[in-house]
From TrEMBL:
Keywords: Oxidoreductase
Boundaries of every FAD dependent oxidoreductase domain copy: 3-354
Source species: Thermococcus thioreducens
Gene3D superfamilies per record: D-Amino Acid Oxidase, subunit A, domain 2, FAD/NAD(P)-binding domain
Coiled-coil residue windows: none
SUPFAM superfamilies noted in UniProt: FAD-linked reductases, C-terminal domain (SSF54373), FAD/NAD(P)-binding domain (SSF51905)
UniProt protein name: Sarcosine oxidase subunit beta
PANTHER family reported for this sequence: FAD-DEPENDENT OXIDOREDUCTASE DOMAIN-CONTAINING PROTEIN 1, SARCOSINE DEHYDROGENASE-RELATED
Keyword Transmembrane helix: no
Gene Ontology molecular function, alphabetical: oxidoreductase activity
Keyword Oxidoreductase among record annotations: yes
Gene Ontology CC terms, in alphabetical order: cytoplasm
Amino acid sequence: MSKIAVIGGGVIGGAPPHELAKLGEEVILFEKNYFGSGSTFRCATGIRAQFTDEANIRLMKYSVERWEKLEEELGFDINFKQTGYLFLATSEEEVEAFKANIRLQNRFGVPTRLIGMDEAREIVPILNTEPFLAGAWNPKDGKANPFKTLFAYLFRAKELGVDAREHTEVIGFEQEGDAITAVRFRSNGKVESVRVDAVLNAANAWAPLINEMAGLSRDIIPITAYKHQLVKTEPLEPGQAEPLVCPPSWNDAYIIQDGEDGGIICGAGIEHKAKGLDDYEPTYDFLRGVLEYAVRIAPPLRYAHVVRQWAGFYAKTPDSNPAIGRLLDNFYIAAGFSGHGFMMAPAVGEAMAGLISKGRSKVPLDWEWYDPYRFERGELRSSAFQIG
Ligand code: FAD
């Protein structure tokens, strides 16, 4: 049995401890704030396999299959619902691009199809069909509750003996050559250290700071925090906009009905580089901009009261694909998930546990595609489609 430290108590750090414990490993999980306090509890709940490249499609096809079994596996209601994603085209060129994406997705078993606006209106009763020519519709995409999902993972992990610590900040490492031998951490003002056999950096926007603690350059994995915001309306009757609905050419604007209370969550690519890693201040330009898009997508929303606005980080690499893999001898990373870390967590959690514990995994994760050292080599992947 090895002792593995996981840094970051969001969903990407929260899934591997359970998987590692199932493989018989001893795990200590560090979260400097409270669990989920980073991007995870701020996310828009969306889960999709509709990507535009083979690596992300195959990974998400597998992740959706894991999501389908997760409630049973973890024994908790996480409110996973396959309510679909509907992308909407506003030009003939976009319809052609949708068709090419659909062919690629179908090749890997993702059942997306092109639909007309009558069918789209049946799926989303409040949709304004007039501006759109066609939709890319995958009924197997969906949504889940991020709070319930993370807590379910952590509950089961703790049951298997995982030592999961909140308000405990990792502040450094002890190393012998390239190997990390101990993690130093601070809790309640007290500094301690614990000997470990391996470390997983799952600190997302903060990951470059953790890399620096391991003696690497902060820029080796260039992750930049962008403030991504959402607003939510008062609850609407269920069934009005259950899928995530997005016309990508409208600045990646989207709406999705919250699976819990029926409020409509509205997002858009109106982003700001975060002024610091505590810059969660919502902005007025976003509020105005997102509501203009939302009302154009679904006109009845003009009568819905907005009850919340909040901000979180899209932790972005230069190609918007995460960095996943081994960085040093026993130091691993899974970070920089942009707008798709929540949906990828079941697959990535399992893959990282396999890699760290056994040196391999059956998860169809293309390690080369996500190779953390690709930026240093000047290799960028095609940009992953970013929205939630
Ligand atoms: P985080 O949840 O950010 O967790 C990292 C944790 O590391 C933090 O809790 C932080 O406190 C901790 N940490 C940092 N430094 C230290 C340290 N030194 N010691 C200990 N702990 C430390 N994704 C989707 O899949 N679908 C969506 O619909 C979606 N919508 C989104 C909407 C918004 C508004 C935002 C902001 C994001 C959205 N995302 C979505 C993206 C998704 O939320 C993230 O990709 C995902 O939550 C990343 O999880 P994580 O565990 O990597 O990071």
